[in-house]
């Protein structure tokens, strides 16, 4: 089974989870990179993120995206912005065709919204099977081994 982990991480939280997943699954891993820097601090980050989601913005990605037909299972990771997935993930979904795959979603947040985010991802990827979802509240503030253990338990449940 060929597996891909694809994610966007603004402040490194989602990257922590993606790196653990890629290591545990021995999978390919792609970090999506928008062409313009996204604000990372204070209220600007929340204003920009909320506005971007509400206006369905899709920033240009600088990544070369792989041929997804080579993968059976795709893990998609995002920070949660306004109870939705981030605009770079929206750009990714617009640029690729994902059909008849097994999908797993992971998200990081500072205050919730995971269920709505996962519902929106599932709706955008309706021609696939969602095998699992998991969310993390600020994993960079947790002990790495605790986070890794949580990821391993989840993987055991869904694979």
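Sequence proposed for the structure above (159 residues):
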């Amino acid at each position: 089974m060929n597996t891909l982990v694809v994610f966007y991480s603004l402040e490194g939280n989602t990257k922590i989870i993606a790196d653990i997943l890629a290591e545990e699954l021995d999978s390919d891993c792609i970090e999506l990179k928008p062409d313009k820097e996204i604000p990372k601090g204070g209220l600007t980050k929340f204003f920009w993120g909320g506005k971007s989601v509400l206006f369905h913005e899709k920033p240009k990605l600088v990544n070369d995206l792989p041929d997804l037909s080579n993968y059976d299972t795709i893990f998609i990771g995002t920070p949660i912005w306004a109870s939705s997935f981030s605009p770079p993930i929206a750009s990714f979904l617009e640029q690729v065709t994902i059909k008849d795959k097994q999908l797993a979603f992971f998200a990081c947040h500072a205050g919730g919204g995971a269920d709505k985010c996962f519902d929106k991802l599932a709706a955008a990827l309706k021609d696939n099977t969602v095998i699992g979802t998991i969310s993390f509240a600020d994993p960079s503030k947790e002990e790495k081994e605790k986070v890794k253990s949580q990821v391993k338990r989840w993987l055991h449940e869904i694979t």
